[in-house]
Amino acid sequence: MSPRTPRPPRVLAAAERARARGFRASSGDGVGPLLAALAAAVPDGGRVLEIGTGAGVGLAWIVSGLGRRRDVEVVTVEADAELAADVRGDVPGYVDVRTGRFEDLHPTLGTYDLVFADAEGGKWTDFDRTRDLVRPGGVLVLDDLDESLYTRPEHRATVAAVVADVHADPRFTVAELAFDTGLLLATRARDGGTA
Ligand SMILES: C[S@@+](CC[C@H](N)C(=O)[O-])C[C@H]1O[C@@H](n2cnc3c(N)ncnc32)[C@H](O)[C@@H]1O
C-alpha cells in the first residue's frame, strides 16, 4: 500500500540524511504518521521517548506531530555517537538527543506519555524496563513485529516473546495492527494498573 500521509519537510530532510549516511533502518511511512498523530495527543507538559534515534526519521515524525507546541519534552536515545551528533544538529531545542545504550541510560530517563521502542535494547532485550517507563494513560508503540520479516527462527521467537510479554502485562491494553512492518500499540491503564 502506498503511503497516504504526505511526508512533512522535516521527515524528508531526515530521510535524505539517512540516504546520505547509507542508514537503512529508518522507520517507514506506516508507523511515522501514527507517531505524529500520537505525539499531537500527548497531554500538556508531557514527555515523549524514542529508543533508537537512527537518522532521525521517526523523531522527525514526532516533532512534526507536535507542530508549534513547546510544552512537550522529547528524549531520544542512540547508541551510535555519530548518528546522535548528526541528529542533534537538526532538532528543536526541546529535543534531548542522548548518546548511549538504553541498557545503561534507562535508570536516568524518567517516565513518558508516549514511548517508541525502536532499538535492540529496550525492545528485543530489557523490554520489561521499557514498559515501566510508560506513564499511566501513556502509549507504547512498537514496529517490525511481522514475523515474516525474519528468516531465523530465533528472531521469530524473540518477536513472539515480546508480543506475548506485553499481552501478559496487566497494566496494558494492546492493539496489534497488521499493516506496514507489523505494529503494536499498548496503552497503560490510567490508574497505572498493577504489574
Ligand atoms: C531501527 S533503528 C532506529 C530508527 C529510528 N527510530 C527511526 O524511526 O527512523 C535502531 C537504532 O537503534 C540504535 N541502537 C541499537 N541498539 C541500541 C541500544 N541498546 N540503545 C540505544 N540505541 C540502540 C542503532 O544504532 C540504530 O540507530
TrEMBL record:
GO terms for molecular function: methyltransferase activity. It comes from the Bacteria. Transmembrane segments: none annotated. Gene3D superfamilies: Vaccinia Virus protein VP39. CDD domains: AdoMet_MTases. Pfam families: Methyltransf_24. GO terms for biological process: methylation. The keyword rRNA-binding does not apply. Keywords: Methyltransferase, Transferase. SUPFAM superfamilies: S-adenosyl-L-methionine-dependent methyltransferases. This is O-methyltransferase family 3.
